Amino acid sequence: MKTWMKWYKTGEMYRFDQPIGKQYMYGHGPEGKTEEERTNCQLTHLKTENEILKKYLKGVDKRIDLNLVGKLRRKYTVTK
């Protein structure tokens, strides 16, 4: 998990497309994919990322969020 976060923070998103145990150093992944295959891989990756974020946000304590809103309410104003 730490390695994945490091890849995400450094912008090395191509590493998520690699099969487990295979790392492509020079070409940044298998070459020869069609545009449709690349789009499908990207779509699958984004769906997985959304699922992970949903699971994370489910675990966030709502009381902490309300406390934060209360503290920041005076500092930031909302206008229409």
Structural overview:
It is a single chain. Helix content is 54%, strand content 0%. With 80 residues, it is an all-alpha fold. The protein has one domain. 0% of the residues are buried. This is Transposase. It comes from Alteribacillus bidgolensis.
Please tell me what the overall shape is.
elongated
How large is the count of helical segments?
3
Count of domain modules: 1
Compute the number of strand runs. Answer: 0
Mean pLDDT: 72
What descriptors fit this protein?
80 residues, mainly alpha, single chain, elongated, Transposase
In short:
This is Transposase. The protein is 54% helix and 0% strand.
Topology, element by element:
Elements lengths: L1 H8 L25 H24 L3 H11 L8
Protein name: Transposase
Organism: Alteribacillus bidgolensis
